């Protein structure tokens, strides 16, 4: 049944013009950003492989995360706007199944956007004709962890989008609040750090996301002098991000189950 619900969600997403417009805007902006970066820029894929891999794997996280939450808000709130969610329940879908389908959208959107930016960055890296390629290949585990960190960070923000979407149930206001949360999260972090509460600020959802895309923390011990975190801290970041996702999904589920159709 879960597969059927998931297939239904994919069908809805692929049939929504708004989803395609959002995705094409993301693809265009990602291409323009990669294309306009000079070969000598520190986060440019135009260094060629393997120099470009850190930038391709973890660069420009905010763009992918922002477009991800836009897609999620549009997909979920449009069902409330058009009363599609109510019709699904009338047609025999349970509220739990409906919510499960929406929860499965989170990793789907995150992986789709991440693979898109990875593919675009890889194309520019393959076509690169300049650069000395002084950066050696890092261990495979480093690349895998960096990619996973990027995706888990996206899921953090996507979970916030899901929670606000089922609570607000209107595309415009929900999207405004979700995007405003980026600003509020950073303001809260600055205030906490100014009051010597930096340890608390580090565990806010978007601060955790920002920390997860720091590529140097995934390098082996001693591989880089710029590694400010260390592997024990990195493991805690993954656990914290997972905890945020679980809590936000639980809150979203409770809010949705208690609200009327």
Topology (SSEs and partners):
Layout: H1 2-15, H2 17-36, H3 53-58, H4 61-81, H5 84-90, H6 95-127, H7 140-168, H8 171-194, H9 198-201, H10 205-212, H11 231-258
Helix pairs in contact: 1-6, 2-4, 2-6, 4-6, 4-7, 4-8, 6-7, 6-11, 7-8, 7-10, 7-11, 10-11
Overall tally of structural domains? 1
What share of residues is helical?
over 70%
Spatial separation of the terminal alpha carbons: 22 Å
- Provide the gyration radius in Å: 20 Å
Overall geometry? globular
Biggest sheet details: none
Please mark out the parts with pLDDT under 50 across 5 or more consecutive residues, or reply none. 222-232
Q: Number of helix segments?
A: 11
Number of strands: 0
The secondary-structure element order is: HHHHHHHHHHH
Structure description:
The chain is mainly α and 261 residues long. It has one domain (2-258). The chain is 74% helix and 0% strand. The chain has eleven helices and no strands. Helix 6 packs across helix 7 (140-168) and helix 7 runs antiparallel to helix 10. The two termini are 22 Å apart.
Write out key terms for the chains shown.
11 helices, mainly alpha, 261 residues, 0% strand
Give me a quick take on this structure.
The protein is built from 11 helices and no strands.
